[in-house]
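Budget justification note: compute hours in this period were largely spent on complex prediction jobs such as the one shown. Inputs:
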Amino acid sequence: MKPLHELTVAQIQQQLIEKKFSSREITQHYLNRIDTLNIDYNCFITVDTNGALTAADQADQAIAEGNSTPLLGVPIAHKDIFCTEGLTTTCGSKMLANFVSPYDATVVSKMKTAGAVMLGKTNMDEFAMGSSNETSFFGPVKNPWNLETVPGGSSGGSAAAVAAQLAPAATGTDTGGSIRQPAALCGITGIKPTYGRVSRYGMIAFASSLDQAGPMTKTAEDAAILLNSMSGLDYKDSTSLDTAVPDFTATLDESLAGLKIGIPKEYFDQRLDTAMADAVQASLAELEKLGAKLVDIELPNSALSVPAYYVIAPAEASSNLSRFDGVRYGYRCNEPEDLEDLYTRTRSEGFGEEVKRRILVGTYALSAGYYDAYYRKAQQIRRLIKDDFVRAFEQVDIIAGPTAPSTAFKFGAKTADPVAMYLEDIYTIAVNLAGLPAMSLPAGQLDNMPIGMQLVGNYFAEHKLLNVAHQFQLATQWHTPTPTSLKG
Ligand code: GLN
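Corresponding output:
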């Protein structure tokens, strides 16, 4: 039998029901691994040993009584951006280092209801701002494929935890690429659903019109299983949508014959390393073998997505983060002289450098004199970017390309130049601006480091993406190799 940590969620589900092992056994197995290995990777900010074992015992009881909920007894980890009742939720920030939420995020409560066992909370860039996990107050996460490189961000803790087999699956959030880019850099699978598919209630807000939660897993099949439990209308989030949630596992086995895959020329221009391009092309050729047809398309406004995002996301962040003022919750400076001093020092001491940069940029872009020149303009560009996709989806069923411009880079390589870091998300950000679903799946290696392929779907076509990814994973092995640091 395979070691427990190599099993997928689908296999764990099956074997729990068959009573090959109990939820307590597999939960304890993961807790032991976290205990010995987390020090190497720094994936977890908080580990909930007692909570996990109690939930595992309850799951075992339910299994013994013949109950079966979709994730019954399956251990998972949550990104530390989701509020968890009674357990710290830090969002990777000193500002919330001791914050204990009085309630669960909807994603957390839905997964609890589905029977999942929460192992703990994963490390992340501060307030989800970053592409390398280097902005976390709790220190960087290390990429299991090469401990000198970043895991990507902002959901780097979740991605590295799944890659290092410290959790079979984890949740992430994606505002401009934070599920897909770390999934690509760590060699795992991750999907950002259509905006509104998953409730944002209790998910600490970065840029509310872009943020969306999704699963990070070993396989597309596991992503489908988790997405089933995460999705759906929530009256506590007015932007969650009242659209029927299909069973995402039901269409995984559909044939790809006749599927039209759009290849945007802008995603394969001179900015993409040729070796990266070759690897993605080879994976596209695999999809052709499975019956898909590749169609050249154009997304002419692609180049504007990073600049538009870096006005809109900071603008929304500056507004969302105004609630951290030292009065209501979170960090408060020592002995403030007056209210002004309380605000100033609390925010100066509580936020890290990148978060402050975003607040400054956002406040500036929203200020009366500059609103038309920056914020309104960025929103107009956002519409053009969306229209590019709408036009493309008149011709094709899905769009494919690279997830990130390179494999994982070394720590410190981009910290001195914020714009270089922002360009990490050059292929992922447009999708958030348009509100579309997209996923990343392992699709090759370069110098022993994973490469991700991105699939973008039309609104509510998550099932299509998962179907394509699953068929690809049945035909190839890129999702199976073990990260270098786990060998021997
Ligand atoms: N890297 C992007 C940023 O820093 C996206 C982050 C995210 O998706 N949360 O804004």
